[in-house]
Structure formats: structure tokens, C-alpha cells
């Protein structure tokens, strides 16, 4: 149109020959009316009637133009107001990035308040943009958004087709078709908004999509989309879907290998109707569509003829072994029971909740529990339960998993509600009191058969006594008599410290308390060691980062606030002396040496009387983890100690969880700040 307008001219009356005025100049109306004047007018003779008509029409034209401009201004103002109202919320880059890379949940309260079945946890196995393979990228762009690389967040042609289709449906002359949404719009719908078929929601979706395109690169948007889209059978994110349906990964290297092009095509088509057609359900129809998608990928030049043929042959029916929905439903219930504030529990409107659950950590915790219980039962069938808790040093729950107790009495949570003997995992805190009083790891203590009270003589698990030894060796080998002797000197300090650290059960007011004769939960023990891992501050484990209304407004945010430091934990010298002793526990010759792996760490074993409970609790600069194995009904004939299977499972789980991560120093390996420890680094 620009080319046509530039050459279209009309000659004004009285203009010299060869002079023309552009149609876009202000005098174009005069030229138009001049064409309508009678041909019998003499040169320069005006027509009064034509002039009157011209002036009248000119005023009408000016009025219409003014009304048009006023209407345009009103529409623009309304659009700006509606836009500001529609996208109000926490949509800055940091907030959206956190939302895309954290576990979250749709919460739709029922009439009786929020229950576990009202919460749909979304915990994708997150991939970084650089981990998205070219095959995955091409398959999803071909299937979902071929203009993804060039559009600004929406595709005008696809949107126009969708509007036309919706109009035909509204008048009863068509059927529902595709929505015309781009990958960016689908990300907005899944991450921020809802699936409601509403024009205002669609308008908001478009506005937020435009905003996302200015905040993130195309690679980042695609990664966030692939991490959060639903693939059916409880699998959110392409990595979870690949493991669920094929037992393999989308990235290399993985021991299980990677999915092939045919399987990638099946996943790319699953997102259209994941509940009806996915690689585990409606497979036959999906395979036919996958062949068309592979052909389209060949037409786009991504696949050669031979590669396309091989991809079509790869559409096998092999399924994975991972029940992702089961794992995430357990994590959902644990998160819901540990930290949903009263204000949210009573809320009647839907919301989105961001949890602290880390999908990889949850997966490794589930596997650790399964392996621990399976191997323990080979030794003695009396062992019937196991659990794992993984925290970040600030108390955020990264993973929680338990075996059989989970299914008891409506989802009983053994991790927070179970009460078990902590064994020797509690011993370090009586040593901490002694270190605060000036004792050192080289201080001599007696490991002898000594009678303390009412004829009670504590024994060691191996039935032997080593005589005079250092505190370092007594702690590393978990000797009982030295710990009991310390209780008589530091009972008040010990009781005060354990109260401040948090005990949900009961600790007896007697010397046997330092041997673990009380009753605590696995989460209690995780809290104790988190205080050591973060530089001496008490923590309250939590599973909810924040909650937002469906329009994006924050209605709750977890506030860590200032945490208390128990008097002995506030003593850096005492705490660092203990940390060195706990390092010796996992070194050569220590009771927990099987728990060591290639990252700086410290920890402690624990075994209760008759071997009914076996523990290992330890921490690195990133995580605190507690592994528990228990016999509920009877004492095992072949008792397992905390330095055995629990330590081995701890090492395997933590080594996998830390794979590819830079080792972080422990709190006492970092320089002190103003006389206190530096804050523990957050996981990266």
C-alpha cells in the first residue's frame, strides 16, 4: 500500500500542467470534490451549490474523523487500564524464573477446606536451556509452534484463525479446533493462569506472553515450557515424562540412556490431550500422528530420509519403571501437612502454591528408601519400615520419603509424627556442651564398665571397653560410657539445648537420654543437624515457599526471619570443635566411614537398643539428610547398625544428589564474619 499511495496524485484546479499533489496531503478532499463539479463551468467560475455541498461534507468528515480519534483514544486508555489490571501480580523476571524452576501445586479447596485430594503437585525434573537437545526442540516446534523463533509471543494468523473458529462455534456452524496458542502462551496458561475458556483470560494470556518475551530468551522460554507442561499419568515436564513412559532420560549422559527420535515425537504429541492420548494410553492413534510429525520434521530439513525411516521404526511400546505420580503424591501429602498456614487452609478460593520439594532429591529419596528396606529384609525380615528426610540448611524440605507407614491410618506421616529412639544421633549435643565449657577433642575420658546410678552400667554395642581415650575417639567410635559421664556434668545445658533445637516427642530426664532412649521423629533429628549445617541457628522445617491467587497476587510468603542460636551453638569454637569430631566419624576408622563420599561432609551414626532403629544423619554445605531403618513389631535377630546399611544408602543417595555440583565448604571451613559463621550456601 505504501508504494501505491506514493504514486497516486490528483491535479488541483488552476495548477500548472505537470504539477500534482500527493493523495496523502491535507488538500486531497478539495481535489476529490473538484472532480464532481459540472463540466460546463467556465474557467475559474465557481459553483455555489458544489461549494456548499463540499463544505457540508467536509464538516461531516471532520466530525467523523474526530469521533474516530476520540474512540481510538478511549479504546487505547481502556486497553491500558485493562492491561494493567489483567497482568497485575509478581511477574518480574526473578519471580517468574523461580516459579518455573520450583515445585508448585494447584490447590482447589473443597467445601470442607483443603484436603490432600484437592492439591495437584507439579514437580517437574527441571532441565536447563542448554540441556534441551536439538531433536526435542525440533519435534516440539514442529508439532506446536513452527513460528516460535520469530513471533513476539503470539502468532497473529493462528490467533485470527482461532477467533474465526470460535465465532463459527458460537453460531453453531463449526466445531472446536486448535486454540492458536504459541508455546509462550501455553507457558503462561500453565505457569500463571488457568485453562478457563474466557476471552478476558485469553487477553491476559496474550499480554503476559508479550511481557515474557521481553524478559527471557527463546531458549529460556522453551525450557520453562518443557519443564512444566503436562504429559499425562502424573508426569509434569519432559524429563519426568521420558522416565515415566520409557525409563530413560532426555539428556546425556545418563546410565539409562536417552530417548530416541520416535519416542520424542510421541511426547511432543502427548501435550495436546495428555489424559486421553499419551505413550501409555491411546497409543495406536498417537503412533499414526507421530509418523506424520516425523514426516513434517523431514520436510523441514531436520531429518534425512533414512533418519525419518529409522525414527518411524522406533515407535516401540517399552515402558519405564518409574511411577512418578505415586512419588509426587507422597511428596504432596508431606508438603501439605508440613507448613500450609492456617490462613491458607481456610481459604475457599483456588490458588497456586510453590513448594520447597526438589524433584531430583525426591526421586533419590524414594529410591533410597526402597533399596534400604529391600536390602535390610535380606538380613532380617523384622525390618518393616524406612524413611529419608532431606533438608536445606535453612530448613526447607527438599525431599521426604517413607515406606509402609505412609499408608497407615489415612496417610500417617512417620517422618513428622512417628516417634522412634534416636540412638547415638543425639550424642554430639552433650559433647557440644562439654566443648563450650572448654573441653577439647584431646581431652581424656574413660570408656570403662562404670556403675552410674541404681546399679546401671552402660555398655557398648561391641561389648568391649577401651579404657582411657580422647573425646575425639569416643565420639568417632560412638562409645556409651563417656557420653553418660558427661551428662552428669552438663545435664542442664543438654536439656536446654535440645529444647531450643526442637523435640516433638519426649526425652527422659535421666542419663540414658544421651544414648537415645527418648522418642523423637526423623524430622526432629534433621532439625538438629540443620542447625549445625547453617552455622548454629535453629530451624523450623517448612515445605511452602509462597502462595499466589490465580491472578498472580502473593497471598502468603514464608518468612525465615531471625532464628535463635542456642547458647552453646552460638559458641563458634565449641561448634567447630564438634564439627571436626563429626568429620572424624565419617573418616577412616570412624563408625560412619561408609557414609563418606567426594564432598566435604560430617555426620553421626545411631543405633537403638536391640537394633530396632538404625540411623545415619549427616550434612554437607548444600543438604542435611537423615536415613532411618526400623523394626516395628519385634527386635531383629540380626541387628543392623547405623554405620551399616543406613550409612551406605546415605552415601549413595547424597553422591547422586551432588553429582555435577561444585563442592561447598562446611560452616566451620568458612571464614567467620564478625565472630560468627558465614551463612551456609544455598544449593546451586
Automatic annotation (TrEMBL):
Keywords: Carboxypeptidase, Glycosyltransferase, Hydrolase, Membrane, Multifunctional enzyme, Protease, Transferase, Transmembrane, Transmembrane helix. This is peptidoglycan glycosyltransferase. Residues 127-297 form the Glycosyl transferase family domain. One of its GO terms (cellular component) is outer membrane-bounded periplasmic space. The keyword Ribonucleoprotein does not apply. In the C-terminal section; belongs to the transpeptidase family. In the N-terminal section; belongs to the glycosyltransferase 51 family. It is an enzyme of class 2 (transferase). GO terms for molecular function: carboxypeptidase activity; penicillin binding; peptidoglycan glycosyltransferase activity. Residues 387-623 form the Penicillin-binding protein transpeptidase domain.
